[in-house]
Known about the structure:
The protein is mainly β. It has a single domain, classed as Crystallins (Gamma-B Crystallin, domain 1, Sandwich), CATH 2.60.20. Helices cover about 15% and strands about 35% of the residues. The protein contains 1 helix and 8 strands, in the order αββββββββ. It has one helix at about 1-15, and strands at about 30-35, 45-50, 55-60, 75-85, 90, 100-105, 110-115, 120. Strands 2-1-4-7 form a 4-stranded antiparallel sheet, with no helix packed on it. A 4-stranded antiparallel sheet has the order 3-8-5-6, with no helix packed on it. It is globular and about 35 Å long. The termini are far apart.
Amino acid sequence: MHYLTTTLTLLASISSAHPLIPRQGSSYYAVGLKYSGGGCTDQSLIYADPIYTKNGCAPLTRPAPYEPQPPITPVVSYKLTSLCSGGSVKLYSTVDCTGTAYSAPLNQCVQGNSPFVSVYVTCPI
C-alpha cells in the first residue's frame, strides 16, 4: 500500500508540472502562462504556451494536448514569461486581433473585459 501511495503522489507531481514545460521543436517568439480565472493564480493555471507566430495574429485558445475537443478552456488572464528581444505582445478578445488590444508586459498579469482568444507577437527580426 505504501508503494501505491508513493507512486500516485509521484505521478500527481509529474502531471502537475507537465503543463509548464514548453513544447520542444521549432523556435518560438514568446511564452505565456494562460489562466482560466482572474488574477493569474496558481489555482487557475491552464498551462504554459509558446507562440510560434511573429508579426501576425495567432490563436491563443488552442486546446491543450490533454484537453478534450471541445471544450477549450477560456483564457481569462495571461502572464507573459519570455519574449523575443525588443518584442511586444498584445492580447485580443477577437479571433482576428481587432478591437481593444491589451499589452502584456513581461511577468505581469493581464486581464481584459472578456476572455482572450488571440495574440499578436511583434518581433523586430
